[in-house]
Amino acid sequence: MMRLTLLRHAKSSWDNPDLRDIDRTLNDRGRRDAPLMGLVCAERLPKPDIILVSPAVRTMETVELFADAWKLQPGVEVIVEDSLYLATRFDWIRIVGTYAGRGGHILGCGHQPGVGNFAGWLDGEFNGDVPTATVLSFLTENGGLDQGTARLDFAGRPKDYRE
Q: Over 80: is that where the pLDDT of 49 sits?
């Protein structure tokens, strides 16, 4: 059985309209929510073997804060996958499939709507809505990556854990 955890980047800033989309940073709420969700996952999930992350600044910041709170470094390999930037579900299928044999738990951090579309493809019951900094963790049958063969094992949104 393989575990696949998907993380949508935390809330990003729109303060600088001249900034390219890929260069947008997290806003204050995003900087609070990413470590919060790292702590939540540390209590509920096994550590990932690999983290796949989009090259966007907001995803890189999310993973750094998330991983620091979870105390994943050193030890967990972080791989920046250029094609995860605004990836479609087909990109997600291809990329995760490439790494599926390298660990029992893969965590991927990316963007909507690709994350939600991929989650819906994995588990036909999932509606595709993934708010910022939301974590979705799936267990796949036989360690494979096939449509409709994953089961959502954990879902967490920051608003459910904020005090």
A: yes
